[in-house]
Design goal:
With 427 residues, this protein is of the alpha+beta class. It has 12 helices and 26 strands.
């Protein structure tokens, strides 16, 4: 089984995760070129080699409108919430990475003067930006799900509805670049499971433009609920809200590194220097025959329409469920109904339970913890007479299977006026 282990002994931020994952792949410069070719408005990602405590690694910086982060931009990119009476509460994102957000209600628009004027973007605008990028639907869903976790945290911290949470333009584009990069790299690496160490969040307090906040910052603390975290002697904020959301979204589970045969190691460096090497370490390897643990949430429903059940299933999958399926069953009073099964990582089972109660009529959910065994999966790009086509390769336990991606076959069929069978036979 292809296993990715993320060592977060010095916390995590979006750019650190990007750099660590990038180091796991060959032709890193080409991958960075592909990320820049996505055309995120006004953004350029720059990759450079650096050292922390004598360890070589990669540092990623994001230039927004040609500018790297300055102290003024750093001050301006602390996320904050405004009410229409112009009362301010401020939450600090991080002190050691180029990755910050700004949240405020749409009733209080403020102009910020750096080298140029900036506007603010909400989840609708984020979805518009992401929707315009040349990405697969799966990667788009991953990006928006991570942003949704951050927006939910900001909403809780600042006491405003999620649809009134907005992000400052500079911080937004920083975050879009980092979150998009991590989601693209995760898709490229395609691990069967992602195991994350307990997360070091730092300690002490952090100063922002309008006050002093405890570490971890409120939004980070909210996102990391149910995740093993710890502080320490290092003063400062080590884990950012974006880093926290990416870890929680992709983690199959949190814990110690399993027995694994390591194939590649990546070091993603932060910006600041500490007594310990300021980096995220990513280890990619194989864990044969050990399986992983998943939660299965089950409920009975006998009073929902087929459309409502379908919508609930789609919503659960979009929120990160590994699998959602229904089984027809006879219910009490001889009513026909369905048994809904939702498979998910244990780290998100509470979120899945909330969504099941919200989108179905059930009044009770059963939980089963199971071990599963999966084949290692990878994506190979194949050149064909119709252009590049992705092939999914699954192997392990003495078995190897290959299958072309449905989306690519469907695209060719539409473009060429062929049936799916004809496309498959011609490749």
């Amino acid at each position: 089984m292809k296993t990715l282990y993320l060592d977060c002994g010095m916390g995590a931020a979006g750019d650190m995760l990007t750099a660590a994952l990038l180091e796991l792949l060959p032709e890193r410069e080409k991958v960075v070129e592909e990320l820049n070719a996505l055309g995120i408005p006004g953004v350029e990602t720059v990759c450079e080699r650096t050292q922390k405590c004598g360890i070589g690694g990669t540092h990623i910086s994001v230039r927004v409108h040609g500018e790297e982060e300055s102290e003024e931009m750093h001050e301006a990119k602390h996320h904050h919430a405004h009410t229409h009476e112009a009362e301010h509460t401020h939450a600090h994102e991080h002190t050691h990475e180029a990755e910050h957000h700004h949240a405020h209600t749409h009733e209080a628009e403020h102009a910020h003067e750096h080298s140029h004027a900036h506007h603010h973007s909400g989840m609708h605008e984020i979805a518009h930006i992401v929707g315009g990028l040349p990405l697969s639907e799966r990667i788009r869903k991953d990006i928006l799900a991570v942003f949704g976790m951050i927006a939910e945290a900001e909403s809780h911290v600042h006491g405003v509805p999620v649809n009134e949470i907005h992000f400052h333009e500079v911080g937004t584009m920083d975050a879009v670049a980092d979150i998009t990069a991590v989601c693209v790299l995760m898709d490229r690496i395609a691990p069967d499971q992602v195991i994350v160490s307990p997360v070091h969040v730092g300690s002490g307090q952090v100063k922002c433009a309008h006050g002093i906040l405890p570490v971890p910052a409120p939004a980070t603390a909210y996102i990391l609920k149910d995740v093993p975290i710890y502080g320490g002697e290092i003063q400062g904020e080590l884990c950012t809200p974006t880093g926290a959301a990416l870890l929680k979204y992709f983690a199959s589970r949190f814990g110690a590194m399993p027995v694994m045969r390591t194939l590649a190691i990546g070091y993603g460096m932060g910006k600041k220097d500490f007594a310990a090497a300021n980096c995220v370490r990513a280890l990619l390897g194989e864990t044969e025959g050990t399986g992983d643990t998943v939660a299965e949430l089950v409920c009975n429903v006998d009073d929902m329409t087929a459309e409502s059940i379908g919508f609930a299933s789609e919503t659960l999958l979009e929120a990160g469920a590994l699998e959602v399926y229904t089984v027809a069953a006879g219910m009490k009073k001889s009513r026909p109904g369905i048994v809904l099964h939702v498979m998910c990582a244990e780290s998100v089972k509470d979120k899945m339970a909330e969504l099941i109660f919200k989108h179905t009529t059930t009044i009770g959910i059963r939980e089963n913890i199971s071990r599963r065994y999966t084949l290692a999966r990878s994506i190979q790009k194949v050149q064909t007479p119709y252009g590049e086509v992705r092939k999914k390769i699954s192997e392990g336990y003495g078995v190897k299977r290959e299958k072309y991606e449905y989306e690519d076959l469907a695209r060719i069929a539409r473009e060429q006026g062929m049936s799916m069978q004809e496309v498959m036979e011609s490749l």
